[in-house]
Every structure is written in C-alpha cells, then in structure tokens.
Amino acid sequence: QHEMEMEEVRRQVxxxxxxxxxxxxxxxxxxxxxxxxxxxxxxxxxxxxxxxEKRQREMERLREEREEAAQWVREMGQLLRNAEAASQxxxxxxxxxxxxxxxxx
Length: 105
Known about the structure:
This protein is mostly helical.
C-alpha cells in the first residue's frame, strides 16, 4: 500500500513538474516573441528618426540655399541700381558738356 501511495505521489509530482516546465517554456517563448517584436519596433523607430534627421538636414540646406539666393538677388538689385545711377550721372555729365560746347542735340 505504501509503495502504491509513494508511486502516486511521484506521478503527481512528475505531472506538476511537467506542467510547470510547459508553463516556463511558454513564458520563455512569449518573452522571445516580445523581445523580437521590441527589436523590430526599435529598428523602425531608429529608421524613422534617421529619416527625420535626414529631412531636417535637407530642409536646413534648402533654407541656406534660399537665403543665399535672396542675398544674391539683393546684391544684383543693388548693382543694377548703382549701374542705373551711374548711367544717369554719365548722361547728365554728357548733357552738361554738350551745353558747354554748345553742341546741338
């Protein structure tokens, strides 16, 4: 009788150990699945961050180019105004000389 009881206890203990092992294995598998999912999410975040930083640098470059172009337009406008003023001054001096020399227009 005692031997049968001991055998039953061993069988129950063994079943409990197997059930616990299955539970542990399930937890390990879930952990691996979650770690894998987390890895891919982190990779996606890193990729998005990298792309956002790249776009930010490109926007900064374009902003600088636009500022340089605006400065060039301002400088060309000033040169044009200076050239126009110089042309008008030359025309005025030419007219003065024509008057002094009494050259008919």
